[in-house]
Amino acid sequence: MTALGSKGTHHRPARGTSPTPADHAAEAALIRELWSAQKAHVAANGLDTEEQGYLDAHFSMPLTLRRRLAVIDWLARGIRPGDRILEWGCRHAVDSCIYRRRFGTSLELHGCDYVEADFYKPFHDFSGLRYAVIRHPYRLDHPDESFDVVTSNGVWEHVDDEVNSLREVFRILKPGGLFLVACLPNRFSYTEAIQRRLGHESHDRLYTIGSASTMLRAAGFEVLARDRRLIVPTMLNGFPRAVKDAYGKLHGLVWGCNGVLERLWPVNRLASNLMFVARRPADG
């Protein structure tokens, strides 16, 4: 995405340039280690375990871990050493843990969500992010023009007030700062349609490249890049664990097929996820 490079920033390191290159095997091992510590933390402190089964499936399967790390790869292309970053709706802050591993202490990482600060303590401690609990339907407890980058990984589609939430992200970005949106559910996704048909969990709101771009521009952003990702399913939400395990053994084939189909028009219109790079104008 050549659009990630902006005029006037040639004196800074290139975006996505991290001291530690991506090592998915080591990063997957780190996530599993942190997840094991998280389960022990939940058990020791009597915390609500409602979400744990969902996350256990995601963090224990090679295919879903590979998917997560591929999304982080995409997001990390918009990050530079020295950036001040907010992981909007960070939850467990897995993304920030991987940013920390790749970029070291050069990043100032922040996170926000509705969960209490100590719930995901092992992940938050490793990432070293500064966490803020969201107490308002859309308002963020950060000053104007605070961040170089705000990331959204599967968050935008869940907020209560889309219009004001996007305006808040715009407000807290520095002029020229980037808003990186990953995994926005595609209205034309055939996997989403199948999930709905089977009565499995699906998204309440779906988007197109056009509708999401319009909302971003209405909030003041410039849309620099758009992408469609994941044609062959990688999650299988709602299916029995045995089916997921059997399918997960095909992760190499699944990933190879996705790599081809994501570049193939018009097949890629059926992708599960839409991705956007948006920027607050330098004079905005």
Describe the 3D structure.
This protein has 284 residues and is an alpha/beta fold. The protein has a single domain, classed as 3-Layer(aba) Sandwich (Rossmann fold), CATH 3.40.50.150. The chain is built from ten helices and seven strands. It has helices at 24-45, 52-60, 62-76, 94-103, 121-127, 162-172, 190-198, 209-218, 241-248, 251-261; strands at 84-88, 108-113, 130-133, 147-153, 173-185, 222-229, 273-279. Strand 1, helix 4 (94-103) and strand 2 form a beta-alpha-beta unit. The two termini are 23 Å apart. The model is unreliable at 1-11 (pLDDT under 50).
Top-tier CATH class: Alpha Beta
The largest sheet is: 7 strands, mixed
Ranges with pLDDT <50 over ≥5 residues?
1-11
Cross-sheet strand order for the largest sheet = 3-2-1-4-5-7-6
Mean pLDDT: 89
CATH-assigned fold name = Rossmann fold
CATH A-level architecture: 3-Layer(aba) Sandwich
Number of individual domains: 1
Strand content: 15-25%
What are its keywords?
284 residues, alpha/beta, Rossmann fold, 7-stranded mixed beta sheet, globular, disordered N terminus
